[in-house]
Design goal:
Blueprint lengths: L31 H12 L2 E6 L2 E6 L2 H7 L5 E3 L3 H5 L1 H4 L11 H10 L5 H27 L4 E2 H18 L13 H18 L5 H4 L1 H27 L10 H7 L11 H14 L2 H16 L1 H15 L14 H13 L5 E6 L3 E3 L3 E3 L4 E5 H4 L3 H4 L13 H6 L18 H18 E5 L7 E4 L1 E4 L3 E6 L5
Parallel strand pairs: 2-8
Antiparallel strand pairs: 1-2, 3-5, 4-12, 5-8, 6-7, 9-12, 10-11
Protoporphyrin IX containing FE binds next to α12, α13 and α19.
């Protein structure tokens, strides 16, 4: 009996397990998710992996993942990469333990920041940022230069969350290189991922230089956040207009208890939202543009919808975004194959039996591999690996069992920014499809880079302005 799984021996693991290093041989510490996907394909819906004494149970099968979505028996587990982010994000929303009082407090104070009214208020700012991107893309297109898709999507999504949430402008489009906030963030995420695969006792030795750099990165992130908060406080609050996220963090008391977020907690929330609010959306947009460039017939169908629904309205309104049904399906399908937050952890809240077969003790936990759940042939068919947005037409969605599609996690701790991300990404794809034809680089093969999140590495696309369209 180990790890809260009394019958662990019945869960398969890779053959040829070695003393000390366990199953680590042949795996690449930089691509833990893709390595685990390969293992899952061989070992089945539940399996375990051990590296240097740390053993982890993985769930990739749809039936078991659905069972773990039962909130009466399972809850979010703060482990692995999420726990490794605690030194920087503390009890911020994403990294808080379920029973930490600041989770409920911040959740209740910030949830109205994602209401329909709030989103409608962010919409014009999302449009402004996309127009900045298109200025930049027009110049590249006119010069016949390919654009750096992940780099530019990161500029776009960082500017969007910074302006809508915090009334702050990072000036990303005025820079050739990524904003140093982005470089520091990537450093911190990649370090948290590496900490997963280095045994604790060896960390001081193996990660000496990396941990020193990590401290520098963390300090930079905190300084950036402090400057954003200071600017708002000195402008007397209300800087972002009618209650953006920062106003809510600084000024809103809990509706029932009257409690407010402490200064330390505000710092952690701002950082959490600046990171969680852009990195995954950037990946989602980048993967979607990859598939749209690669499959002109799908792009044409999406573009025809945009032309039909929006015409040449220069600035489509908030309500016109949700009408892009097919564009939204392209995004849904993108997040099926490449959920950019590729896994989440669940722990048993009581002694229970997973899927009627695997006893788990209270506190026992497993990592749900969303990338595998979303490719389970039992649910998605023999062509599960193929990109096909029609999997998300209304009838197909109704026909699928519940809890089979989880790009935003599950239950009480699911993504608070889901609507924000989907609205932003649908709007941006609609605007880009209307304005450009996408020409893929014929030599490009999809390479996925991992830093807790997923991103298509080195994706470049050429653009052609569509004559007569905005
Ligand atoms: C939580 C995915 C966009 C803020 C989560 C979780 C997932 C996720 C899987 C649950 C993690 C877990 O169970 O450990 C995504 C994806 C996005 C996206 C795929 C884009 C395509 C956003 C945006 C924001 C945001 C735009 C903010 C504006 C958060 C926060 C949490 C969270 C604060 C923690 C919620 C809580 O525990 O109460 N996200 N997210 N995310 N996300 Fe997102």
């Amino acid at each position: 009996a180990e790890l809260g799984w009394p019958e662990l021996h019945r869960i398969p693991h890779p053959p040829h397990r070695l003393p000390l290093i366990g199953d680590a041989l042949g795996s690449n510490p930089r691509t833990p998710v893709q390595d685990s996907m390969r293992l899952g394909r061989r070992l089945g819906p539940i399996f375990r992996r051990k590296a240097f004494g740390k053993e982890i149970v993985f769930v990739g099968g749809a039936a078991l993942a659905a069972d773990m979505a039962d909130e009466s028996r399972f809850a979010k587990h703060v482990g692995l990469g999420v726990a490794n982010l605690r030194p920087v994000a503390g009890d911020g929303l994403f990294t808080a333990y379920n029973d930490e009082p600041n989770w409920q407090l911040a959740h209740d104070v910030l949830a109205p920041g994602f209401s329909r009214e709030a989103m409608a208020g962010y919409h014009p700012m999302m449009l402004d940022v996309t127009e900045r991107l298109m200025d930049h893309w027009d110049r590249a297109g006119a010069a016949g230069r390919p654009v750096d898709v992940p780099g530019d999507m990161t500029k776009l999504t960082l500017e969007t969350i910074a302006r809508t949430g915090f009334g702050h402008d990072f000036g990303s489009f005025e820079r050739d290189r990524p904003h140093p906030f982005v470089s520091a963030m990537i450093g911190v995420l990649a370090y948290a991922q590496r900490r997963n695969v280095v045994p604790d006792p060896l960390a001081p030795l193996l990660l000496r230089a990396a941990s020193r750099q990590n401290a520098v990165d963390m300090a930079f992130l905190n300084d950036t956040v402090d400057a954003v908060v200071r600017a708002r406080r000195s402008s007397g609050g209300g800087g972002g207009g009618a209650g953006d996220l920062l106003d809510r963090m600084l000024e809103t008391a809990h509706p029932e208890t009257g409690e407010r977020l402490s200064a330390t907690n505000v710092r952690r929330q701002v950082l959490t939202f600046l990171i969680a609010g852009h990195e995954t959306t950037s990946g989602a947009l980048s993967f979607a543009l990859h598939y749209l460039a690669l499959r002109p017939e799908l792009a044409a169908r999406a573009r025809a919808e945009v032309d039909r629904v929006w015409g040449d309205t220069p600035r489509p309104g908030y309500d016109q975004v949700a009408k892009l049904r097919y564009v939204r399906r392209v995004l849904d399908e993108t997040l099926r194959l490449w959920p950019t937050a590729p896994a989440y952890s669940r722990e048993a809240v009581e002694d229970t039996v997973l899927g009627g077969a695997h006893p788990v003790r209270r506190g026992g936990w497993a990592l749900v591999l969303t990338t595998m759940l979303h490719r389970d042939p039992e649910v998605w068919g023999a062509d599960a690996e193929a990109f096909d947005p029609d999997r998300f037409d209304a009838a197909a969605v109704r026909a699928r069992p519940p809890h089979t599609y989880k790009p935003f996690g599950t239950g009480a701790r699911a993504c608070i920014g889901r609507q924000f991300a989907l609205h932003e990404a649908t709007l941006v794809l609609g605007l880009l499809l209307r304005r450009y034809e996408l020409r893929p680089d014929p030599a490009y093969r999809l390479t996925v880079t991992e830093r807790l999140t997923l991103m298509p590495e080195g994706l470049r696309v050429r653009l052609e302005r569509r004559p007569g369209y905005r």
